Amino acid sequence: MSANLVIFLAIVALTGVFFYLRHKRAQDPAALKAKTAKAAAEARAAAPRPARPAEPPEAVFAKLRKRAFETTPESLRMAGSLGEDEPYAVVMEIGMSSVVTLACFADGDASLVYQSGGGMVGGIGHESVRKASKEFIALSHTAVPLMAPATIQPLPAVPETGQVQFFALTPKGALSVEMNREDLEEHQELKALYQSGQEVVTHMRKVQEQRRA
């Protein structure tokens, strides 16, 4: 028998063994089950997923507003470094056709949300906003004596059209004051605080415009 014939017969034998083992594996229940499970998983991954329904603007507004009021000195890493009446967060709300809520924090962060939808969070990432937010917090110290303890839970009611309300969050508790915008002229501390808050809003809107551009 020639060498070439021997090699040919060996190849034929190996090919036969390969197909036999492949056929036997295909008939193996465990292998078949694993193959079926893999195919099902791939089919699920490829199938289009239903879109998650978008939350209405009022729900998003309420969630972000609630988050601002739940801020603590610990979350800002300021625990133990504040006086009991020293604000670490201040919320200014303006009642218009819908409510506008500005929340500023002692670390320079700020958020601006509209009850009708839209706004901006993460102001701490922008130097102009961060600077204006800290100035707003610093100025709030002079307005604290005009505020009273806020006892409405879980959150105070939002202001009506034409009203402005301020909330100062301190280690001792939340304080608030509310009045008509026209009456701010009679209270210089609150008028100055309102103007400072509007400065924060202006910087945040500029950031939004730059993003759109």
Structure described in brief:
By secondary structure, the chain is an alpha+beta fold. The protein folds into two domains: 3-46; 57-212, Mago nashi protein, CATH 3.30.1560. The chain has helices at 3-27, 29-46, 57-69, 127-143, 188-212; strands at residues 89-95, 99-105, 110-114, 119-120, 148-149, 163-170, 173-180.
Identify the notable features of this structure and list them briefly.
Mago nashi protein, 18% strand, 213 residues, seven-stranded antiparallel beta sheet, alpha+beta, single chain
Write up this protein.
With 213 residues, the chain is an alpha+beta fold. The chain folds into two domains: 44 residues; 156 residues, Mago nashi protein (2-Layer Sandwich). Helices cover 46% and strands 18% of the residues. The protein has five helices and seven strands; from the N terminus they run αααββββαβββα. It has a seven-stranded antiparallel sheet with strand order 4-3-2-1-6-7-5, sandwiched between helices. β1 and β2 form a beta hairpin. α4 packs antiparallel against α5. The mean pLDDT is 83.
